[in-house]
Each structure stands twice: as structure tokens, then as C-alpha cells.
Design brief:
CATH architecture of the largest domain: 3 Solenoid
Number of domains: 2
Oligomer: single chain
Strand order of the largest sheet: 3-6-9-12-14-15
Strand content: 5-15%
Structural class: alpha/beta
Helix content: 40-55%
Shape: elongated
Distance between the termini: 50 Å
CATH class of the largest domain: Mainly Beta
Radius of gyration: 27 Å
Length: 259
């Protein structure tokens, strides 16, 4: 137990530049205090001292503003940053090296006693501030939950969940989208991995518009070649006001989406 508690203090010094010393962590970090309370309460819970474990965890919530059920399983090197308002349910499991920010709820949606009601976080998961992860599913290793997201289904390893209800952005999709944005010569906030639900809709429109502009230009080039015979005979079958070149206004689009 003491080795696990030591790992909580060490990871705070590694991940938080504001932590100046071990004494600073020991006396000033409610996330560390909450995990210490939990380790003791969890040990009591496993030995069948359920009432005493709940009583101790309640005092931990009183002193830190962080509520961790004594039945929850917390891994090594977990960092609860700031932590006020964090709630971790009875059947929740938090893997090694996870980071949890303030206002996060690892909650349940089922009333069945004894069932797996709360989520399981894999290794290295980051859960952003005020996000809600609700249900007995798994968030894969290295996944990220965006701030304010409401997640009610499994998140694949390495993916990002954003919005309410949360939408899953696969790791490979984000890289491909950034490459496409670079070719287009601009990168609006609607084509980044950390976007919001509205910008996801804009992203689809931007990608589609850029592709259509290029295809239309190619089609008109083909039409002009086919129309050469008609021009020789004195009839121009290509409309004079047709758009024969790409005219995708990246700068104007950036202004519209707020960049």
C-alpha cells in the first residue's frame, strides 16, 4: 500500500510543474490526499469492513472534495489534478498512469446490484475537466476524453471522444485529416483532433467542398477539349460564365469558422 501511495506522489512531481517539492505534494495536493484516503478505505473494503470503509471515504470527500468509492480499483501513478468534484463509482477501474481532471464523473447507468455499472479506464487515459463517463464499458489504453464530453459507449485505444453525446475520433483519422488540411493550404479549427461537435460538422463540409472544387475544375477541362470540334464549326457549347478553375476561398472560410 505504501509503495502505491509513493507512486501517487512521484507522478505529481513528474507531471505538474507547479509541484516544487515532495513536501508541497504531501501537504497541498487534494488529489494526493484523496488517493491516500482511498488506499486505506479500499484495504478495509477488501477485508469486509464495509461500514468503516464507507465512513473513511466520506471523510476523504469532506476534506478533499473528491469522492472515490472504497470499492473502486485505482492503479499506480494515477494523477487527479485539482480534483474538486471528481466522483469515481464502486465498480470503476482506473488503470496505471491515468490523469483525471476536476469535475469528472466515472458513473453508472444501471441499478442492478453486483453488476459492472461503472467504466474501466485503460493505461494512460486522460479524462478532461467536467467530462462524464457513464456505464460499464472500457476506455482503451491511451485514449483521451475531451473536456465536457459525455461518454456512454466504449472508446477504442488511442482514440479521442469529444462532445455531448461523445463522438469518437480515431487516431488515424485525425492524422489523415491534418495531412489533407496541409495540402489545402489552411487549417481551420474544424479539421483538428481537439474540435467540438459543431466544428465536426464544418469539417465534413470543408473536406467535401475542397474535393468538389477540384473535381469540377477537372470536368470543365475535359468539356473544353470535347468542345473544340463545335468551336471550329462556329458554335461555342461551353457557357462563358462557367467556373473553369478552382476558386476555394480558404481565407474567407477561416473567417467564417472563427479562426
Amino acid at each position: 500500500m505504501f509503495q502505491r501511495i509513493r507512486s501517487y506522489a512521484q507522478v505529481i512531481r513528474e507531471r505538474d510543474p507547479a509541484a516544487r517539492s515532495a513536501w508541497d505534494v504531501l501537504f497541498s495536493y487534494p488529489g494526493f490526499h484523496a488517493l491516500v484516503f482511498h488506499r486505506i478505505a479500499h484495504a478495509l473494503w477488501q477485508r469486509g469492513w464495509r461500514w468503516l470503509a464507507r465512513w473513511l471515504s466520506n471523510w476523504g470527500r469532506f476534506f478533499t472534495g473528491i469522492e472515490i468509492h472504497p470499492g473502486a480499483v485505482i492503479g499506480r501513478r494515477v494523477f487527479i489534478d485539482h480534483g474538486m468534484g471528481v466522483v469515481i463509482g464502486e465498480t470503476a477501474e482506473v488503470g496505471d498512469d491515468c490523469t483525471i481532471y476536476q469535475g469528472v464523473t466515472l458513473g453508472g447507468t444501471s441499478l442492478a446490484k453486483g453488476a459492472k455499472r461503472h467504466p474501466t479506464l485503460g493505461r494512460g487515459v486522460i479524462v478532461g475537466a467536467n467530462s462524464q463517463v457513464l456505464g460499464g464499458f472500457t476506455v482503451g489504453d491511451g485514449a483521451k476524453i475531451g473536456s465536457g464530453a459525455v461518454v456512454t459507449k466504449a472508446v477504442p485505444a488511442g482514440a479521442t471522444a469529444v462532445g455531448n453525446p461523445a463522438r469518437i475520433i480515431a487516431e488515424g483519422d485525425a492524422a489523415r485529416r491534418e495531412a489533407a488540411a496541409a495540402r489545402m493550404g489552411f487549417s481551420a479549427y474544424g479539421v483538428t483532433q481537439s474540435d467540438d461537435p459543431l466544428s465536426q460538422a464544418l469539417r465534413g463540409l470543408i473536406d467535401g467542398t475542397a474535393s468538389q472544387e477540384h473535381q469540377i475544375a477537372l470536368l470543365w477541362n475535359a468539356v473544353e477539349k470535347l468542345a473544340e470540334c463545335a468551336r471550329v464549326q462556329g458554335a461555342d457549347c461551353v457557357p462563358q460564365d462557367a467556373a473553369r478553375q478552382e476558386s476555394f476561398e480558404a481565407k474567407r472560410l477561416n473567417e467564417l469558422v472563427g479562426e
